[in-house]
């Protein structure tokens, strides 16, 4: 289930983009989130939501913004958490 997209991006990406990404994840997997409308400052909000919603601890000392660049890179980080849920 791709509800994690809605959870992470509600209020950060336009709702039609979120719905389209859920409906056709493969088409959106590798698109840069900035190209989908995510503002650069919102990346930190996504990181905070990942920690709060999924208990996935982010090491901010070694944090790379590129690790949250696409839905695919986020999914890869969350995969173990999503499988357990």
What is the compact description of this entry?
It contains six helices and no strands. It has helices at about 5-10, 15-25, 25-30, 35, 40-55, 70-85. The model has no long low-confidence stretch (mean pLDDT about 85).
Description:
By secondary structure, this protein is mainly alpha-helical. The chain has one domain (3-84): Non-ribosomal Peptide Synthetase Peptidyl Carrier Protein, Chain A. It has helices at 3-9, 15-23, 25-28, 33-36, 42-54, 71-84. The protein is globular. The protein starts with a helix and ends with a helix.
Features:
85 residues; mainly alpha; Non-ribosomal Peptide Synthetase Peptidyl Carrier Protein, Chain A; 6 helices; globular
**How large, in whole angstroms, is the Cα Rg?**
12 Å
CATH superfamily: ACP-like
Give the CATH architecture: Orthogonal Bundle
| Fraction in helix | 55-70%
The domain count comes to 1
Question: How much strand content do the residues show?
Answer: under 5%
Strand tally is 0
Q: How many individual helices?
A: 6
First-residue to last-residue Cα separation: 10 Å
Q: What is the makeup of the main sheet?
A: none
Itemize the secondary structure elements and their pairings.
Layout: H1 3-9, H2 15-23, H3 25-28, H4 33-36, H5 42-54, H6 71-84
């Amino acid at each position: 289930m791709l509800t994690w997209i809605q959870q992470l991006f509600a209020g950060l990406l336009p709702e039609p983009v979120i719905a389209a990404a859920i409906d056709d994840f493969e088409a959106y997997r590798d698109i840069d989130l900035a190209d989908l409308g995510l503002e650069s400052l919102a990346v930190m909000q996504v990181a905070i939501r990942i920690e709060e919603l999924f208990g996935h601890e982010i090491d901010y000392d070694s944090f790379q913004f590129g690790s949250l660049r696409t839905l695919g890179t986020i999914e890869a980080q969350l995969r173990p958490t999503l499988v357990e849920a």
